[in-house]
């Protein structure tokens, strides 16, 4: 079905239903794509190299005697293969990414330009400190911005991702407790709506996890929290705004209860992009918080890296920050404290071989400097505005999980699908046919059939209206009994619906040439 200029379905084009099958297998500009093993051949190569002369092999009898089996392709064939694959992939540069809790925001090209400057792109971690003063300057300025925006005392830049930042914060808490003779404190309170990495990190650091129930409004149940306090409590790991897309109204009370019990307050900073510039977590009583640079400050997200999850620390925990970290000397030059013995504090150790991800630092600082404090505040406000706009427009078609306004993500449950024969998974698959990546499904676990949508501040009203129109249309189709539209979806994707359980349990990780009829007959 075609779409008109406001994103609503328009009348089908007459020839669409009778489109002929092409001889080439292509569909217009979308070319057929085979596996690279099927396209190339191990008998040929796209590069001709002269035989080496005068080189003596140093592998002795360990040298490979057989082919690796990798197919040979010419340069145009290799280039076209990967371009065609890219055309079948969804990306933030292609359309809206409504994933909740993941914050797929636009990566500004200015950031990429700065990260590619020779002084940053070519820097090597083993260069003498005197030759990388500019790079250390970026780290020092980034640290200043992170500390200022969060109202904290110190920051560890070296963690490579959000979960790694959690590990950093909890190890700092572990070290602080041990230094104070409080090694008996090994119980960590974690809300049942927390990200899965929170309890996993706590256990990895040697703590025991004690779950806190959620109240009916999606926030921490204070009464349950109070019953869990005791002399063995090390602290709490809480996300704010939380995973239900809601701000914890009792955040100061929670902090006071934890501190009064002798524990520390770790805040999962995954959703900092909803409050950056508006609220300083340090003012809320937070002792440690990781910051996903890709979520809040527009560095690339996913793809296996490079990632970065700096961890900010309060006055009480800053002395235990890991090495390495940047300091400013009396003469104004910068230095990198690499060893625990050279630190003025009590570092709990070292988390990574080197100082972190330079490309992420330069990208994040570029975003901060180009927006300024007022721009970062506006980005947070726009993210919250966009999410509430989506929630307000869809609440008559879908059931909102919790009453009232949300923060940066709108959360729906599956109550509105009852009796339709359509599940959350079916609805998400149908979104692919509409040209959208599905929203986050079945998370948080405290909401049945959860559909978590985060539009981010990057989206214009026009793009939100088009998304809302598609979601509304799908909702009406589900309620009208058009179940085939959902249970067989996606119909228009390069890959149709998979048996995901079988794919997870018995994945095919290696290509094998298909067996020919002649081989079958010979057997």
Please summarize what this structure is:
This protein is an alpha/beta fold.
Describe the structure in your own words:
It is an enzyme of class 1 (oxidoreductase). With 523 residues, the chain is an alpha/beta fold. It has a domain at 110-367: 3-Layer(aba) Sandwich (Aspartate Aminotransferase, domain 2). It is built from 16 helices and twelve strands. It has helices spanning 36-39, 75-86, 109-115, 118-121, 133-150, 162-179, 197-204, 222-228, 251-260, 293-296, 358-394, 424-433, 461-479, 484-487, 500-505, 517-522, and strands at 154-156, 187-191, 208-212, 233-239, 264-268, 288-290, 311-313, 325-328, 334-337, 410-412, 440-441, 451-453. Strands 1-7-6-5-4-2-3 form a seven-stranded mixed beta sheet, sandwiched between helices. Strands 10-12-11 form a three-stranded antiparallel beta sheet. It has a two-stranded antiparallel ribbon with strand order 8-9. Helix 9 (251-260) links the parallel strand 4 (233-239) and strand 5. Helix 3 runs antiparallel to helix 11 (358-394), helix 6 (162-179) crosses helix 7 and helix 11 packs across helix 13. The longest helix has 37 residues, at 358-394.
Provide the helix percentage. Answer: 25-40%
**SS summary, helix count:** 16
Q: What is the H-and-E element order?
A: HHHHHEHEHEHEHEEHEEEHEHEEHHHH
Strand order of the largest sheet: 1-7-6-5-4-2-3
Instruction: Name the shape in a single word.
Output: globular
For the record, what is the CATH homologous superfamily label of one domain? Type I PLP-dependent aspartate aminotransferase-like (Major domain)
Global structural class? alpha/beta
Mean of residue pLDDT values: 91
InterPro entries: Aminotrans_V_dom, GDC-P_C, GDC_P, PyrdxlP-dep_Trfase, PyrdxlP-dep_Trfase_major, PyrdxlP-dep_Trfase_small
Keywords: Oxidoreductase, Pyridoxal phosphate
EC number: 1.4.4.2
Pfam family, one: GcvP2_C
């Amino acid at each position: 079905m075609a779409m008109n200029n406001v994103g609503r379905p328009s009348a089908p084009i007459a020839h669409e239903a009778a489109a002929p099958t092409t001889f080439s297998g292509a569909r217009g500009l979308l070319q057929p794509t085979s596996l690279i093993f099927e396209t190339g051949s191990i008998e040929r190569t796209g590069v001709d190299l002269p035989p080496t002369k005068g080189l003596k092999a140093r592998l002795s009898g360990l040298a490979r005697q057989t082919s690796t089996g990798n197919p040979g392709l010419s340069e145009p064939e290799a280039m076209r293969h990967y371009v065609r694959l890219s055309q079948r992939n969804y990306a933030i540069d292609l359309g809206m990414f409504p994933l909740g809790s993941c914050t797929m925001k636009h990566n500004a090209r200015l950031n990429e330009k700065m990260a590619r400057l020779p002084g940053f792109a070519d820097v090597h971690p083993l260069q003498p400190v005197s030759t990388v003063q500019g790079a250390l300057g970026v780290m020092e300025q980034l640290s200043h911005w992170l500390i200022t925006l969060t109202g904290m005392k110190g920051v560890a830049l070296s963690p490579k991702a959000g979960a790694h930042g959690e590990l950093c914060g909890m190890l700092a808490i572990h070290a602080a407790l041990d230094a104070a003779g409080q090694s008996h404190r090994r119980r960590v309170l974690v809300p049942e709506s927390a990200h899965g990495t929170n309890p996993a990190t706590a256990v990895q650091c040697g703590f025991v996890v004690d779950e806190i129930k959620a109240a009916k409004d999606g926030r921490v149940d204070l009464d349950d929290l109070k019953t869990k306090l005791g002399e063995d409590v090390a602290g709490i790991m809480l996300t704010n705004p939380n995973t239900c897309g809601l701000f914890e109204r009792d955040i100061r009370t929670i902090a006071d209860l934890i501190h009064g019990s002798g524990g520390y307050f770790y805040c999962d900073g995954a959703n900092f992009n909803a409050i950056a510039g508006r609220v300083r977590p340090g003012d809320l009583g937070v002792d440690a918080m990781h910051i996903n640079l890709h979520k809040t400050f527009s560095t690339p997200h996913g793809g296996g890296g490079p990632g970065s999850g700096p961890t900010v620390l309060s006055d009480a925990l800053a002395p235990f920050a890991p090495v390495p970290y940047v300091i400013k000397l009396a003469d104004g030059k910068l230095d990198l404290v690499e060893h625990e013995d050279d630190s003025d504090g009590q570092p709990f150790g070292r988390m990574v071989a080197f100082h972190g991800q330079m490309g992420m630092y330069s990208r994040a600082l570029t975003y901060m400097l180009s927006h300024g404090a007022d721009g970062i505040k506006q980005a947070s406000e726009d993210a919250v505005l966009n999410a509430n706009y989506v929630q307000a427009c869809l609440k008559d078609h879908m059931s909102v999980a919790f009453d009232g306004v949300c923060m940066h993500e709108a959360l729906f449950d599956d109550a509105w699908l009852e009796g339709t024969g359509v599940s959350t998974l079916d609805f998400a698959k149908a979104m692919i046919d509409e040209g959208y990546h599905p929203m986050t499904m079945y998370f948080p676990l405290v909401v049945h059939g959860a559909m978590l949508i985060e539009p981010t501040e990057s989206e214009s009203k026009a793009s939100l209206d088009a998304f809302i129109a598609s979601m509304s249309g799908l909702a009406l189709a589900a309620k009208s009994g058009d179940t085939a539209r959902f249970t067989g979806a996606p119909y228009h994707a390069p890959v149709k619906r998979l048996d995901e359980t079988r794919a997870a349990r018995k994945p095919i990780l290696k290509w094998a040439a298909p067996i020919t009829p002649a081989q079958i007959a010979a057997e």
